[in-house]
Specification:
This protein has 375 residues and is mainly α. 73% of the residues lie in helices and 5% in strands.
Length: 375
């Protein structure tokens, strides 16, 4: 804590206390809505009513029901997201107007529908083939889709929310390319994301697999940080590539998606759940809210374990950055700058960290860097 002034510590804690209740309330509200719709006849009624607006066929019920579930979830989440945005705006972390925020929300909704409706259609085509064994081909398809989305994300989805321009030639770009070459990692491009039109927060990342791999730095990071600090951030991100975190994460995600589908197949064959949901079997479109509720519950239960794995991965990437640059002092300076500019709670309550944090706290990262320095 000695690395931060009392004012910086207090500011980070105040932001956390102001926004975390709204973030948690939004998650709980979304989960509660899913459970109410999935475990009572209300969801079945929603699917039937939505399908009836488009002719009442089985296909209409699947597609309109899926769309209705997505829209309800988005509408429920909007007040909580808006409140978090207001809080962050009071701390100077938001640069985007409400109009831009609304456009981003609509883009996100459109993307969710674009991906979700074909998935729902395909899934219920499989349940029509077999109400008992549908999950076998669905599990394989879920694994393949996870891999495909990981590869396509930087090419198709990232440009929907940010504009990317090549970093101008100069010492920093040369240094980042040299850092990647020193690490033995081929990088196609070094790009700058126009994050400043939304936020003042600092970040950088390496995205893509193989031919799509590129280093991306926020323009906010380039404007606020020293060049060596930018290198340290990128060295951390290169650590994810060096340890094949993206590839391993994609593989584990594919396995996890397949296992989740298998669990969903088991749950949707359990008569008490189907009766509670007002559905006859997995092939009945009225089981769609039950499917969504079970998926949401699986995600909520597995969240802390995923966060624990993520923190270990991030700590390993920190060690990689230190080993690659051999510059612990600048690493500490970089962690200070990130924490202060992003107004992070540098030492949050342990329970919150265990349940929700994907990265170690700033205090822990700095302590680990100093420990590394002494070895």
């Amino acid at each position: 804590m000695d690395d931060f002034t009392p004012e910086q510590v207090a500011r980070g804690r105040a932001l956390r206390r102001a926004q975390v209740p709204w973030l948690l309330a939004g998650r709980l509200a979304a989960l509660a809505l899913s459970l109410v719709l999935g475990l009572t006849p209300a969801g079945a009624g929603l699917v039937t009513a939505a399908g009836g607006l488009f002719g009442g066929s089985r296909t209409a019920e699947v597609l309109a029901g899926a769309a209705a579930l997505v829209l309800l979830g988005q509408l429920l989440g909007l007040p909580f997201a808006a409140r978090v945005r207001v809080v962050r705006g009071r701390y100077g972390l938001v640069t985007q107007g409400w109009g831009g925020w609304a456009v981003d929300a609509l883009r996100g909704l459109g993307l969710t529908l674009l991906l979700g409706l074909p998935l729902a259609y395909g899934l219920y085509a499989l349940t029509a083939w077999s109400a008992q064994d549908w999950w076998l081909p669905a599990a394989g398809a879920a694994a393949l889709l996870t891999v495909a989305l990981s590869f396509l994300h930087p090419l198709l989805f990232e440009p929907l929310f940010n504009r990317f321009t090549p970093m101008p030639p100069g010492p920093l770009r040369d240094a980042l390319h040299a850092l990647a070459a020193q690490d033995g990692i081929p990088v196609r491009q070094v790009l700058v994301a126009d994050a400043s039109r939304r936020t003042t927060a600092l970040n950088a990342y390496v995205s893509g697999l193989g031919a799509t791999r590129r280093i991306v730095a926020y323009d906010t990071l380039l404007a606020a940080a020293e060049p060596r600090e930018v290198e340290l951030v990128v060295a951390h991100e290169l650590g994810h590539v060096k340890h094949r975190d993206v590839l391993t994460g994609t593989a584990l995600g594919a396995v996890g998606a397949a296992v989740a589908v298998a669990v969903l197949g088991l749950l949707l064959s359990w008569p008490p759940l189907l009766t509670a949901a007002g559905a006859t079997d997995a092939a009945d479109p009225r089981s769609l809210p039950l499917l969504a509720a079970c998926a949401a519950l699986i995600g909520a239960v597995s969240g802390p374990a995923q966060c624990a794995v993520s923190r270990r991965i991030e700590a390993r990437a920190d060690r990689h950055a230190l080993e690659l640059t051999a510059d612990p002092d600048q690493f500490v300076a970089m962690q200070r700058r990130l924490a202060v500019t992003n107004i992070s709670d540098v030492d949050p309550p342990r329970l919150l960290e265990l349940l929700f944090a994907t990265h170690p706290s700033a205090v822990r990262r700095i302590a680990a860097a100093r420990s590394w320095q002494q070895t």
